[in-house]
Amino acid sequence: MIINHPLLGPRDAAEFVYLGDASLMDRPDPEAENAAEQFYEYGYLRDNPAGAHQELWYHEQGDRSWLVVTRDTLTHEITGVKLARDEAKKRGRNK
Amino acid sequence: MRYSAFEILKQGLSGNKGWKPVWREPEPKAEYDVIIVGGGGHGLSTAYYLSKVYGMRNIAVLEKGWLGSGNIGRNTTIIRSNYMMPGNQPFYEFSLKLWEGLEQDFNYNAMVSQRSILNLFHSDPQRDAFVRRANAMILSGADAELADEAQLRRELPFLDFDNARFPIKGGLYQRRGGTVRHDAVAWGYARGADSHGVDIIQNCEVTGFDIENGVCTGVRSSKGSIRTKKVAVCVAGSSSRVMSLAGMRLPIESHVLQAFVTEGLKPTLPGVITFGAGHFYVSQSDKGGLVFGGDIDGYNTYAQRGNLPVVEDVAEGGMAIMPMIGRTRLLRSWGGVMDMSMDGSPFIDKTHIEGLYFNGGWCYGGFKATPASGYCYAHLLANDTPHPVATEMRLDRFKRGHIIDEKGQGNQPNLH
After folding, report:
1. How many contacts, defined by CB atoms under 8 Å, are there between A and B?
2. pTM of the model
3. Are B291 and B77 in contact (CB under 8 A)?
4. Chain B residue numbers touching A38 (CB-CB < 8 A)
5. Which residue ranges form the domains of chain A, and what is each CATH number?
6. Fewest CB within 10 angstroms: A19, A24, B113, B134, which?
7. Are B233 and B356 in contact (CB under 8 A)?
8. What is the chain B residue with the closest CA to A53?
């Protein structure tokens, strides 16, 4: 698989480390009433879809940026690559 | 028909015209007591033990494709019980004992071959860890034997003992481990279940569950709706997809594991050998091909194929312990989709929906578990209480903090 890095261009997926579903960016609020339940779901439950999947890849052997990759789990086709930093800012976070 | 030497002789003398199909191909009835979703090894063994040991009748197995078209036909056929955690090891030892009597039990030649499994170690700390594991195995009633370097040099002279990076210092033997003809396991269980009246319905995909007020009363399928008292889902590899039809999210990711077979060689490997410093395991099939594999690819996928970086990694692992295979040509490679659970251990449990049961999360260790998985699942379905060796394989164990993490990696499925 080739991941088209937004800053570095096409890079071999072997340069990256895979973390998992991109929803892992949205850490629950530890102060919330049902924080234990939310952290259980955050830590352990996954949608695991067959089809389009947004996921986090870390460019360990490159610029060490985190990417949000949209990839089809049935065909391995990559349809979108964004910097996780930009995605987080879009969701209202400061970094 | 019971298979025996006498039967072969009789059929041979009468032109082999009397052999019958090994199982029926019935149409689904309107209602069953138990519907098993998934006609792979685990689903078929569940049906077999449910009908034979637990005396239940009126059972159907629904299979989306043909029998054994999933991971029972895509594995590396190894059986063993060399685990360590208390929630796992008694279960796998129970499974190994079932393997030992399986062929007599279901009257089918599954080519169970207890040719031993050897886990190599490469350092003193690893030796200590293996001694501890061996003790855990022995405590569960399994066999374990520590071999030192001198013994291995005598028995397996082709190993690269003096490898500069990972010298081989010894190994942990389980002599009762070995290999089994995987397809014959599916066929044997299917034949056994069928002979006890189980309806095995192929090309019948489950498309939904009928759930009313928290009770599952039936399934919808490509062959129509079927009512039932209990639905037993057993579709490792596709667990998340099927259970999402019941609105459930699982502690599982789907990953691909690749396997490889070389051209046929003269008898070389006496048993199964695993590398202790990387991930590589190898055995030799009865046809002569070396069958081997290594790590999963590491990203979510439902495609039954992997990528080249893992091929390279597996080949490096092989070369590190057995440089002699360097010029062997690969004939085939393939990938199978695994349910990778959050702690690397499986589930055999009820769900919060009454009448809906779940078996899955086998990671890349489902084949060896086939008999015990079916037996324990059948026990659960018949009695609504877990079998004594499967009490910890619960779906809610992460919530309770009672994980079974053999490798100590935490909730990162691609590291198990």
Report:
1. 67
2. 0.96
3. yes
4. none
5. 2-90 (3.30.2270.10)
6. A24
7. yes
8. B300
